[in-house]
Every structure is written in C-alpha cells, then in structure tokens.
Amino acid sequence: MVFPSEPFFCVLLLSSFLFVSPSQSAADYSILVYKGCAKQAFQDPNGVYSQAISALFGSLVSQSTKTKFFKTTAGTSQTTITGLFQCRGDLSNTDCYNCVSKLPILTDKLCGKTIAARIQLYGCYISYEVAGFAQISGMEMLYKTCGAKNLAGGGFEERRDTALSVMQNGVVSGHGYFATNYQSVYVLGQCEGDVGDSDCGECVKTAVQRAQVECGNAISGQIYLHKCFISYSYYANGVPRRSSSSSSSSNSISSGTGQNTGKTVAIIVGGAAGVGFLVICLLFARGLIKKHDDF
C-alpha cells in the first residue's frame, strides 16, 4: 500500500515502545508503535469520503472478531477507498477485536482526514488509501527500533542470527507467521495476509538483513517493512512464558536445541541445588542434636 516518499509521508517514531515479548498482557497490544499519515487531506465538501471511511472502518472492525486479516473497499466509483487490518498471529480473536476496535478513533486523532494512513499498534495495524494513491515497494522500510548494545557476552550475534534464520524459514512454512526462541533469543516474523509464501520469504529475508545492519549487536530490534515485520529480543534469564490471554500454541514453535538444552540444564542445576540444601539442613540438625547431647 501506502506512502510514497518522505515529503508525502509523516512518520512518528516512539522510542519508548516496548519490544515484542511473548509474555506481554493483552492490554499491551494497544500501545502505539508508529503512525504514517499522508500530508494531503481530503477535499470533501459533501462528506462522501468521510462516509466511505466510516463504512470502511465499521467493516474492518466487525471482521476482526472472525479473522486476523481482512481487506476490503468502500465508497462509490468516484470515492473508492481500500483498507485493511491485520493482527499479530498469536492474538486470540478477542484480543484482535479489542486491538482493532481502537484504531478508527486513533487514526482520526493522529492523522485526521488524510487520503492515506497507517496506524501500527503493538498487536495490530490498520491502513487505508484512496484510489490512485501512489504505491511503494513491499520492501520499503517504514519503521525501525533497536535496543541497548549487547551485554550478553560472546556469541550473542551468532545465537541471534541462528534464531533469525530459523524464523526466516519458519515464516514461509507457517504461511506468513512464525515465532520461536533459541538460546534466550525470542524472534517473531509476520507478513501481510495477502502476500504469497515466496514473496513473504523474500520480504522477511530483507527485514532480517536490515536488522543485522541497522541494529548491529543490539540485544533487541524491530524492523517494519511495508509488507512484513520482524522482531528479536534477548532475555538474559531465559525467554519468559507466553501470556495465557493469547491462543497461539500452534503458531509458536520453539527450536528443540535451544529450549530443550535450557530445560535440561535448569533441571540439573535445580536438582543439585535441592540436594545441596537438603544436606545443609541435615548437617544443621545434626549439629543441634550434638549440642543438646553435650548439655
């Protein structure tokens, strides 16, 4: 879809945006990531465009209770407006609706009556454009953000790149959405719902390359291209558990090597710690008995 070149496209970047985490609560899905607003406003003396946008938004919101992606048009042949919404693949239908239902008001508040707009929240986005609006490449970067520099020690970039490679392959076999974790690195990728598997793979590949270049050794990063986005985050204490509000067990596939190894180590360490604690308790009790006998 949308926004051709920078002079015609205003983007608001929020540096305080929280990185994608598998443990975020449903309320966090409504956090604003960025806005994209065309600078040209509607010439709408009779209110026909306003009516078309209102009808478009109504249709999109109603569909968000049933699906995570929907694209449609509204208006007459003279006032055709195309719009779509998409929710993250790991959102439940309820969370998707709750996210999308906030977007029409936000769009009007942040962009006003512009001929094209895109509002990206943490868990969903909405976009629309009038017929004839200039198109851009699906690989065009709309937004990026990178976290703090790596403090994770040696080998971090190799672990991250391995996780991104797994995700890059997974998003194709997953038909547009994939999330996984590998050795404390959580990655997620998603393509727009009407993008084919082959084009999706190319889009995510480009996003991964941009992340490696733009974010360097940062421990987290997000790259939003026009037709796809990716995210990665490193968790020093291990990737947190998923929120119970999201129903996505079939979409989030953990890499066997990373997660199973982590679990094995945790069991061994935890077991050893438990045995050690028991021994200390026994020795302490033995000492008390010996002192009692001495009296």
Structural key phrases:
single chain; signal; transmembrane helix; disordered C terminus; Cell2Cell_Antifungal; six-stranded antiparallel beta sheet; 6 helices
Q: In total, how many beta strands? A: 11
Q: Note the run of SSEs as H and E.
A: EEHEEHHEEEHEEHEEH
Task: Report how far apart the termini are.
Answer: 87 Å
The number of distinct helices, counting runs of at least 4 residues, comes to 6
Q: Kindly estimate the percentage of residues that lie in beta strands according to DSSP.
A: 15-25%
Structural class: alpha+beta
The coarse overall form would be elongated
Low-confidence stretches: 1-19, 244-286, 288-295
Lateral arrangement of strands in the main beta sheet? 1-2-5-6-4-3
Task: Characterize the biggest β-sheet.
Answer: 6 strands, antiparallel
Rounded radius of gyration (Å): 24 Å
Helix content: 25-40%
Mean pLDDT: 79
Written description of the protein model:
- The chain is of the alpha+beta class.
- 37% of the residues lie in helices and 24% in strands.
- The protein is built from 6 helices and 11 strands.
- It has helices spanning 48-63, 93-100, 103-111, 156-173, 197-215, 256-294, and strands at residues 9-13, 32-38, 69-74, 81-87, 116-121, 124-130, 141-146, 177-182, 185-191, 220-225, 228-234.
- The strands form 2 sheets. The chain has a 6-stranded antiparallel β-sheet with strand order 1-2-5-6-4-3. The chain has a 5-stranded antiparallel β-sheet with strand order 7-10-11-9-8.
- Helix 4 (156-173) packs antiparallel against helix 5.
- The chain is elongated and about 65 Å long.
- Residues 1-19, 244-286 and 288-295 have low confidence and may be disordered.
